[in-house]
Amino acid sequence: MQDIMTLIQDPAAWVALVTLVVMEVVLGIDNLIFISILTNKLPPEHRERARKTGIALALIMRLALLGTIAWIVQLTEPLFELFGHGFSWKDLILIAGGLFLVWKATKEIHHNVDPEDHQEDFIASSTGTNFASAIGQILLLDLVFSVDSIITAVGMTPHLPIMVVAVIAAVTVMLVAATPLANFIERNPTIVMLALAFLLMIGTTLIADGMGFHVPKGYVYAAMAFSALVEMLNMLARNARRRKREGSH
Question: Which of 20, 34, 147, 169 is most buried, by the most CB atoms less than 10 A from its CB?
């Protein structure tokens, strides 16, 4: 209790908390895009439940990982060396997660380009399997991002309570934003392809990081923000043309 009171009275702790919350929310954007696309493949009556269940279980998993920080930090120790780069468990997790994202995004892009090829749909036909598959994939990807963000958080603050509060705050934001984002993506089909391109880029970045080629996340998010801005301008232009045609009739 005394340690917590000391943290509350420490301005540096508040700065670390705000920084961590912002970082966790920004990193959560990747997850939200994936969750939105994945759950939109489910029947409408199961989508919101899948989002809430997946994010809630992801919160439990992140808090459990925070309880094993000493083990998580050890994941950065090299296991073997290849091509002059020492690969750690963290690297292998990032590479596996990146390959998973690239594979999923590529399959879904193919399905959107060739909708007649139903065999390329990455979710099975059974509703029960759909729901379980969606939850499993949400947790799998969140594990990848969780390990990366927790290791980053450890480098920013040594205080576990700050990490716990930051994770809870960030996941709460994800929980609130998940449905509006998913609905927006569903209403705007062109956004789907842009979001899939984001996932493809994020997957490639994870693989590069795992291979020892660090790509500053600021560059990635700046590219995503610029692309999103261009798409928003395209949407405004299309709406303006549609209103003009309707007005002329």
Answer: 34
